[in-house]
Amino acid sequence: HLAAADQTADLNARHADDATRHAERSARYGEAAAQALARRDEEDRQWQRRLDQYQQARAATGEGPALQQLRQQLFTPEERLRVDAALALRGAGG
């Protein structure tokens, strides 16, 4: 798992496109793993987009019932546990 995580970090740092990601992963780990990692990449992109949406709404409206409703709409119960930490990491440059 660490090798795949290191490779993903390298691909991210290089801003590699999906085709490059797939080719490198398929060559190293096989087609099935490359497809699974591509699905994980898409899940991460969706998470980041939802975090962006929530962060923008919070900046525009502040805390309140509307923001809590948006949080309920955007995130699963498990994800809601991670939202504040994820936003704190963004603020710290992570």
TrEMBL record:
Key words of the record: Cell inner membrane, Cell membrane, Chaperone, Lipid degradation, Lipid metabolism, Membrane, Transmembrane, Transmembrane helix
One Gene Ontology term from the biological process aspect of the record: lipid catabolic process
InterPro entries: Lipase_chaperone
UniProt keyword annotation of S-adenosyl-L-methionine present: no
Main location per the UniProt record: membrane
Any GO MF annotation of the entry: unfolded protein binding
Subcellular location, record wording: Cell inner membrane
Region (Disordered): 1-45
One GO cellular component term noted in the UniProt record for this chain: plasma membrane
Domain of life: Bacteria
Ranges of biased composition (kind: Basic and acidic residues): 12-28
Membrane-topology descriptor: Single-pass membrane protein
A Pfam family reported for this protein in Swiss-Prot or TrEMBL: Lipase_chap
Family: Belongs to the lipase chaperone family.
Name of the featured protein: Lipase helper protein
Organism, scientific name: Myxococcus llanfairpwllgwyngyllgogerychwyrndrobwllllantysiliogogogochensis
